[in-house]
């Protein structure tokens, strides 16, 4: 597939990246992301002993389509060659929302990249585009929930101006979860 057809439906673009709605063909990348996850990530977010989620499972969940409103989670592709390297976007709810009692948490920003695409500033570039979109849309606040051991993710959020607001321990085995927020 050439880069022109890869760009169909682009929601956000940066110097090096395009962010577009997910499609069934992204399941291969999602399976790789699942397979690469750190062993400290809770088991329900890693591939189990039976090999689930399978490629077919992930295709089925992508087939259910983008969410009706809001930005949702977008596939991140490289403008250079059209390759999909992960996702970045916004989700409603999430575990951090409950920890922020008293203030509306806003959507949660989330991102994940294939290991071979890491260390080049792509996550920061993609997440910055999502933050800028949120400002343009008039959102008041974003939040993110990150395991305290996840230094690269915390650093990305710090670079974007997020600050620690709360800590929870939803799963004793995986350590603390840091909730960070950004006032827009
Ligand atoms: C978090 C993640 C998306 C970052 O992607 P990335 O494209 O490599 O991020 P960037 O290059 O934009 O920025 C990473 C920053 O973390 C820093 N970093 C990387 N490894 C680090 C470590 N072990 N300790 C401290 N900082 C680290 C980098 O130096 C960089 O900061 P800098 O620009 O000040 O040098 C990627 O590591 C990933 O997908 N991880 C697994 C999934 C995940 O954790 N998702 C987030 C869940 S909330």
TrEMBL record:
Keywords: Acyltransferase, Transferase. Signal peptide: none annotated. SUPFAM superfamilies: Acyl-CoA N-acyltransferases (Nat) (SSF55729). It is an enzyme of class 2 (transferase). The keyword Acyltransferase applies. One of its GO terms (molecular function) is acyltransferase activity. It comes from the Bacteria. Residues 17-184 form the N-acetyltransferase domain. Residues 43-63 are annotated as: Disordered. Its EC number is 2.3.-.-. Residues 43-62 have a biased composition (Basic and acidic residues). This is GNAT family N-acetyltransferase. It comes from Brachybacterium tyrofermentans.
């Amino acid at each position: 597939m050439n880069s022109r057809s890869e760009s169909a439906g682009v929601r956000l673009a940066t110097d090096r990246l395009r962010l577009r709605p997910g499609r069934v063909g992204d399941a291969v990348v999602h399976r790789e992301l699942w397979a690469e996850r750190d062993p400290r990530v809770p088991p329900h977010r890693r591939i189990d002993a039976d090999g689930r989620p399978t490629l077919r499972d992930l295709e089925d969940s992508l087939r259910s389509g983008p969410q009706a409103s809001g930005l949702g989670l977008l596939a991140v592709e490289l403008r250079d060659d059209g390759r999909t390297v992960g996702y970045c976007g916004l989700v409603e709810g999430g575990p951090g929302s409950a920890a922020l009692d008293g203030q509306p948490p806003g959507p949660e920003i989330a991102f994940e990249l294939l290991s071979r695409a890491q260390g080049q500033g792509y996550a920061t570039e993609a997440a910055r585009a999502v933050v800028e979109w949120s400002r343009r849309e008039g959102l008041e606040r974003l939040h993110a929930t990150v395991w305290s051991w996840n230094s690269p993710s915390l650093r990305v959020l710090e670079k974007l101006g997020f600050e620690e607001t709360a800590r929870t321990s939803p799963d004793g085995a995986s350590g603390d979860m840091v909730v960070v927020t950004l006032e827009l």
